[in-house]
Amino acid sequence: MIEWQTITDEVTARFGVDPIRVTFNPRFRSLAGRAHATKRHVEIGAWMLYAPDEDQRQTLLHEIAHVLTGPTKAAHGREWKSWMRRLGVEPERTYSDSLAAYSPSASRTAAPVRVYFICTGQEHSTTPIIPCEIRRRRKPRNDYSHPAYTCKLHGARFVRATMSAY
């Protein structure tokens, strides 16, 4: 785990700017960090403590760059990008898909994986794929190839389809 306040103090000393306070907010569910430029304050999601050190460091420097840019400048504009480079970080979005896995809301906010299913009652070699409606026999398991699902039109079960079928 990185030393959050130590890194912040080193940055403020290096650039001769007023101190910046760092606190952790346990209420952040998907937000990695937030900067309050006028208060010279950075809030970090408490869940970030479980993220890899490099992601922690980049998030902290990202938020520090917002404070150093000031409240009147564009959030990710030229001046912010300049500060990011001066801090030794590429000016880019720091909240990556890999970082999202550490968020407490990862299961809620993760993009759904699109899976396609084809009714086995169709002759797919001679006819185009007809969208079939699903009839559910019991509680769904989010897997339409499960026997709980049958086609209303053909009475057959569904199987996973490859994207090339569409």
Instruction: State the distance separating the first and last CA atoms.
Output: 47 Å
Strands of the widest sheet, in order across it, are 1-3-2
Number of helices: 5
Q: Whole-number radius of gyration?
A: 25 Å
Give me the CATH superfamily of the largest domain: Metalloproteases ("zincins"), catalytic domain
Q: Give the overall pLDDT as a whole number.
A: 75
Helix content, binned percent: 25-40%
The name CATH uses for the topology of the largest domain is Zincin-like
SSE string: HEEEHHHHEEEE
Number of domains: 2
Give start-end ranges of low-pLDDT stretches. 109-115, 124-130, 136-140, 162-166
Q: Please outline the major beta sheet.
A: 3 strands, mixed
Under the CATH scheme, the architecture of the largest domain is: 2-Layer Sandwich
**What CATH first level of the largest domain would be assigned?**
Alpha Beta
Net shape: elongated
Helical/strand content category: alpha+beta
Which percent range describes the beta-strand content? 15-25%
Q: How many strand units? A: 7
Question: What does this protein look like?
Answer:
- The chain is α+β, with helices and mostly antiparallel strands and 166 residues long.
- The chain has two domains: 105 residues, Metalloproteases ("zincins"), catalytic domain (Zincin-like, 2-Layer Sandwich); 55 residues, no CATH class.
- Helices cover 28% and strands 17% of the residues.
- It contains five helices and seven strands; from the N terminus they run αβββααααββββ.
- The protein starts with a helix and ends in a 5-residue tail after the last strand.
- The C terminus is likely disordered.
